[in-house]
């Protein structure tokens, strides 16, 4: 199939945005924005590889390791390994490794988790208290809305699978450069979803035989430099390439009332409970349609889609 480029929409970049302006003019639009010139504390100047290694020493971290730069959650082309934090940082910062798990040029990725990843939520103040002292998190939401603060440390060249999260978040790029490609929740029909992940990992060279509708998805894109903060509204898909070794801090907060979220969600990526229940009910409805012959099943399925469009779609989606 002939290759068609997706048009690229640059994500707005705004400098020196204060809390009031963010809440009044930016947040309600529910679109990604790069915030420049934010006050982030001493982390932006202090966090060299040596400083990071010394600050938190040899505490163990569980990391993703892959032989190829494109990490894919769906095909699980990576392995989980445990390393002392200082060794991990040194390895993630180098391109070729003397000691390795899979291959000399393997890539590393840390997505920090809570003490017990199944029960506890990542909070750098608890897991990385020394480094947490260096960061000033932009307080653009109420304290009670805070959900997690997650370290994301990656090797140069690493590409993270396309996915959405169910909470709003700031991606604070403390060191290193990154390219982020985003897609609106509205374009979900073109992204070939499997749960919260898209099957389209290679957003630059998508397999259009397999994913022909992908060309219809509108591509938003931005480049982050050290000190930039990207606001990623909940449900926006994102695919991230680290152009250099880099350290980011990802802060999630609750946009919906607290009780809307799944209590067992430690990552901020489980669908709100009402959405999960609605999907279960839909699956039951589809099972019920199987009682009909194909001609009728098709007809009533189309009527159901029309009903969903009429009753649940918004018509002001810009
Ligand atoms: O920067 C990264 O490594 C991933 C960021 C991400 O997935 C997020 O902001 O939710």
Series of H and E elements: EEHEHHEEHEHHEEEEEEEEEEHH
Helix content: 10-25%
End-to-end gap: 30 Å
Which ligands accompany this protein? Answer: 2-oxoglutaric acid
Helix and strand content put the structural class at: alpha+beta
- What about the largest sheet? 9 strands, mixed
Report strand order across the widest sheet: 2-3-14-9-16-7-6-4-5
Tell me about this structure:
With 318 residues, this protein is α+β, with helices and mostly antiparallel strands. It has 2 domains: 8-260, Cupin (Jelly Rolls, Sandwich), CATH 2.60.120; 273-312. Helix content is 23%, strand content 27%. The chain has 8 helices and 16 strands. The chain has helices spanning 19-26, 43-46, 49-56, 85-93, 124-127, 129-132, 273-289, 294-312; strands spanning 8-10, 12-15, 33-36, 60-66, 79-84, 107-111, 146-154, 159-163, 168-175, 178-183, 193-194, 197-198, 219-224, 229-232, 237-242, 246-253. The strands form 3 sheets. Strands 2-3-14-9-16-7-6-4-5 form a 9-stranded mixed sheet, covered by helices on one side. A 5-stranded mixed sheet has the order 1-13-10-15-8, with no helix packed on it. Helix 1 (19-26) links the parallel strand 2 and strand 3. The two termini are 30 Å apart. The model has no long low-confidence stretch (mean pLDDT 95). 2-oxoglutaric acid (AKG) is lined by residues 152, 154, 160, 165, 169, 171, 232, 238, 240, 248, 250.
């Amino acid at each position: 199939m002939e290759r068609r480029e997706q048009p690229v929409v640059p994500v707005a970049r705004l400098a020196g945005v204060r809390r009031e302006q963010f809440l009044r003019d930016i947040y309600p639009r529910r679109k990604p924005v790069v915030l420049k010139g934010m006050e982030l504390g001493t982390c932006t100047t202090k966090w060299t590889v040596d400083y990071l290694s010394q600050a938190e020493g040899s505490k163990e971290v569980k990391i993703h390791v892959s032989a190829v730069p494109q990490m894919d959650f769906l095909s699980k082309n990576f392995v989980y390994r445990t390393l002392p934090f200082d060794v991990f940082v040194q390895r993630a910062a180098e391109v070729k490794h003397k000691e390795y798990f899979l291959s000399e040029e393997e890539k590393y990725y840390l997505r920090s988790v809570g003490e017990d990843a199944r029960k506890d939520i990542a909070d750098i103040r608890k897991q990385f208290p020394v480094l947490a002292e260096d960061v000033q998190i932009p307080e653009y939401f109420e304290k009670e809305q805070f959900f997690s603060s997650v370290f994301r440390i990656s090797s140069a060249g690493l590409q993270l699978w396309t996915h959405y999260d169910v909470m709003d978040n700031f991606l604070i790029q403390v060191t290193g450069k990154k390219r982020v490609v985003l897609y609106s929740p509205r374009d979900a029909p073109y992204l070939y979803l499997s749960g919260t992940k898209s099957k389209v990992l290679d957003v630059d060279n998508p397999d259009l035989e397999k994913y022909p509708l992908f060309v219809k998805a509108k591509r938003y894109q931005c480049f982050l430099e050290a000190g930039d903060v990207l606001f990623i509204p909940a449900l926006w898909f994102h695919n991230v390439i680290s152009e250099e070794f880099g350290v980011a801090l990802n802060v999630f907060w609750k946009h919906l009332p607290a009780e809307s979220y799944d209590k067992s969600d430690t990552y901020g990526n489980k669908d709100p409970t009402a959405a999960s229940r609605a999907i279960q009910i839909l699956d039951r409805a589809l099972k019920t349609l199987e009682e009909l012959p194909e001609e009728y099943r098709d007809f009533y399925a189309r009527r159901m889609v029309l009903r969903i469009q009429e009753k649940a779609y918004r018509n002001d989606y810009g």
